[in-house]
Amino acid sequence: MRSSFVTLTALILVAWTLLAQQDARPGLAGFSGDNSRAEQEWEQRFRSAISPDNIGDYAKLLSARPHHVGSAYDKHDEEWLASKFKEWGWDVHVESFQILFPTPKERVLEMVEPVRFVAKLQEPPIPEDPSSNQQAEQLPSYNAYSIDGDVTAPLVYVNYGIPDDYEELERMGVSVKGAIVIARYGASWRGIKPKVAFEHGAVGCLIYSDPRDDGYTAGDVYPKGPWRPAEGVQRGSVVDMALYPGDPLTPGVGATSDAKRLKLEDVKVFTKIPVQPVSYADAQPLLAALAGPVAPARWRGGLPITYHVGPGPAKVHLKLKFNWDMKQINDVIARIPGASEADEWVIRGNHFDAWVNGAQDPVSGISAEMEEARTLGELSKAGWKPKRTIIYCAWDAEEPGLIGSTEWVETHADELRAHAVAYINTDSHSRGYLNVEGSHSLETFINQVAREVTDPEKNISVWQRRQLRRIADANSGEERERLRSRTTWPIQALGSGSDYTAFLDFAGVASLDLNYSGETDGGVYHSVYDDFYWFTHFSDVGFVYGRALAQTAGTAVLRLADADLLPFNFTDLFSTVRDYVNELQRLAENQSDQIRERNRQISEGVFSATSDPQKPLVAPAMEAVPPHLNFASLQNALDALNHSADHYERVYIKAAQDGGATLGRASLAQVNLELLQSERALTDANGLLWRPWFKHQLYAPGFYTGYGVKTVPAVREAIEQKQWSTAEQSINTVSKVLENEAAVIEKAAISLEQAIR
Questions:
Q1: pLDDT (tens digit, 9 = 90+) per residue, 354-369?
Q2: I want to staple 401 with a disulfide (CB 3.0 to 4.6 A). Which of 239, 289, 668, 689 is the partner?
Q3: Which residues 6+ apart lie within 8 Å of 521 measured at CB?
Q4: Per residue in 105-159, pLDDT tens?
Q5: How far apart are CA 644 and CA 656, in angstroms?
Q6: Is 515 in contact with 213 (CB distance < 8 Å)?
Q7: Beta bridge partners of 341
């Protein structure tokens, strides 16, 4: 034990020394020497002025009452946010949209066989928690954009309710056709569960939080601990955001008062079957009444029952009716105009609406953003003026389907494509490590920003803390050495689930999503217990990570707004896309190998019987062996991207060699205009096949993952779904997009060369 500890300690000390050495670098990327020194002084003043006490005060006020879309306190929070921006010297306006937002009118869930049981569908107040008893203002537990329905059917347990689970049910000889399914939360976004259930013939869907994932198996439940209590329920939207987010009635255009709207019967993103979320207290009697095959080991949750699959003898009655009302939503938009490049916009956002009180989601994030806004206002009064226009946004109606941000982006899409440099998003946070997802042209940039922020508990940079964690978690000595040699850590690709989606996927604006998490857990997500009492007892006590979040996001805004040359790095982009293409080729080969092996087994009579001995043994059909996909055009486009990224990097290094003095003398306006178009070049106006709202060809949420990203989605999903002609067509589309990207970067490289001569 002691020997292992000494070895690990020595490794960490060596890594710490190396990281400290890597931190000692001159200047800032994209700045001349003089401007770099001035920028660092302003950034230090900014970070020093961020107050965790202020963040806590904002959070207490904003989460004091339930503030879902259309509620009185949602309006209160919007007006308070606007008033504070004005008080701090920002130019503020409120932009309103008219959107469809259904709320429950009738909810009935009961087991009618083999015994009667009526689900409570209610979260009780907790005496220790003063705001959990605001029941008159709380939205009931429900799934927004579930259709109305009244169905009675046998119950079937489908584990997480993802496509792989239905393949397992088929192997067990269990069908969900004509049944109501019950799935546990996890493994995918909630809206995927009713979508896949309908595709397999189910007539209704229940989604519950299993205590193994989100309850007493994970830790002490609220109020003793942070985990979901027995009667806690996760609300949430089940609109099919893989087709498009935003107002369901106005896809692709802003939901202004005069917008052309779809009829309800023509909307494709509503569920096809009624859906209701339930607590594990309500789920347990239903699951306990099931018979049929015992669930596979990996399907068994934490309830004190034997998990059976069904169908029956449990029969369930589910009845749902909704008020399909139009609501006005209000986005708060605040600006500090740029002093010299006002037509280039750096945009920052977080939503403020919640399912109930929402102290963590989203108030922890919007409170950090407001402290950034206060501090930037103070800097402006002290003489700082950004080169570029800074726009701070407080989004309404994120929870039902990213609506406030999406409608604003759709309304201003042409302006954003012309002027937007980047969008920086936050949503919520807790205690722990900095997590970053985003456009890979901003990977080096955000690594540099992370070096400037001090972790409030470890007193090292948040960059160092994350890097040390990555080294400690390495699976081998070889991987550990490779990680030590890197001066940046990779960021993850963006899927969906927060307000960056429309910026990146629809408008093609380079985007980052930031949060701190990893050292506190809990199970109050989208429940009445996500409130100020829970957050200040079990999450970011003292709001010190709220301060770190504000310092990180605000420093990124400052640096993007003030840079002489926009700090994009295209070698990061190239290496990431190269890895994606290699993954696609391996995926295609694996799919072909699996089909050949399956066909061999069928031809030799090696296949599984059903679990029902009464059913005859029928051999499955053989599949056509797929063609060899031609990746040549994609490889050629990669070569072009590599060449242009390398060219730009060489020119940039030359410009920065003399401490960036050349950057200070050069006329960089044309270069910056070309650089801000680089993310736009990765989009295709026609969008993805079958879901044209999504324009970006490198990043999109998966059709069957919801939030989870699918990189190079048109090609990847075509291969996964064995649509070989579509895969070939998509390879050509993506190749052209990468060629366009290479041309934009090459043009910027040439313009930079000319500027620094």
A1: 999 999 999 999 999 9
A2: 239
A3: 218, 219, 226, 227
A4: 999 999 999 999 999 999 999 999 999 999 999 999 999 999 999 999 999 999 9
A5: 18
A6: no
A7: 388
Q: Which two tokens stand for residue 47?
A: 């970070």
> What are the beta bridge partners of residue 423?
347, 511
Give residues with Cβ within 8 angstroms of 412, minimum separation 6.
254
Longest CA span, the chain: 84
How many whole angstroms separate alpha carbon 579 and alpha carbon 733?
18
**Cβ proximity of 362 and 33 under 8 Å:** no
Range among 122-136, 475-489, 611-625 rated most confident: 122-136
**Residues contacting residue 177 through CB under 8 Å, at least 6 positions apart:** 200, 201, 202
Task: With CA atoms as reference, report the closest residue to 433 among 450, 421, 408.
Answer: 450
The total of other beta-carbon atoms located within 10 Å of residue 214's CB is 26
Pairwise CA distance, residues 357 & 363, whole Å: 9
- Cβ atoms of 533 and 446 within 8 Å: the answer is no
**Host H or E run for residue 348:** strand 341-351
d(CA 342, CA 723): 47
CA 239 to chain CA centroid, Å, is: 16
Nearest of 289, 251, 305 to residue 111 by alpha carbon: 289
Q: What is each CA distance from 98 to 15, 250, 269, 592, in whole angstroms?
A: 54, 10, 18, 49
Provide the CA 638 distance to its chain's centre, in angstroms.
27
Which one has a higher pLDDT value, 521 or 616? 521
Helix axes 544-562, 52-62, angle to 10 degrees: 100
Q: Which residue has the tokens 């006002």?
A: 342
Cβ neighbours of residue 452 under 8 Å, at least 6 residues apart?
Answer: 43, 47, 461, 551, 555
Show the tokens assigned to 313. 């003898």
Find residue 153's DSSP bridge partners.
Answer: 316
Q: Enumerate domains of the chain plus CATH numbers.
A: 2-99+328-562 (3.40.630.10), 103-326 (3.50.30.30), 570-610+617-756 (1.20.930.40)
Q: Which residues pair with 149 in a beta bridge?
A: 320
Quote the strand ranges of 573-672, DSSP E.
none
* Cβ–Cβ < 8 Å for 714, 730: yes
Which residue is associated with the tokens 């494709």? 268
Cβ atoms 249, 262 nearer than 8 A:
yes
Strands (E), 54-90: none
- Beta-carbon contacts of 468 under 8 Å, excluding residues fewer than 6 positions away, are 12, 15, 16, 19, 460
List the beta bridge partners of residue 331: 95
Q: How far is CA 330 from CA 97, 366, 395, 502, 713, in A?
A: 7, 15, 7, 17, 33
The three-state DSSP-derived secondary structure of 541-572 is HHHHHHHHHHHHHHHHHHHHHHCCCCCCCHHH
Q: What is the DSSP string of 447-496?
A: HHHHTTSBPTTTSSBHHHHHHHHHHHT-SSHHHHHHHHH-SS-PPBPP-S
Q: Angle 570-603/632-656 helices, nearest 10 degrees?
A: 160
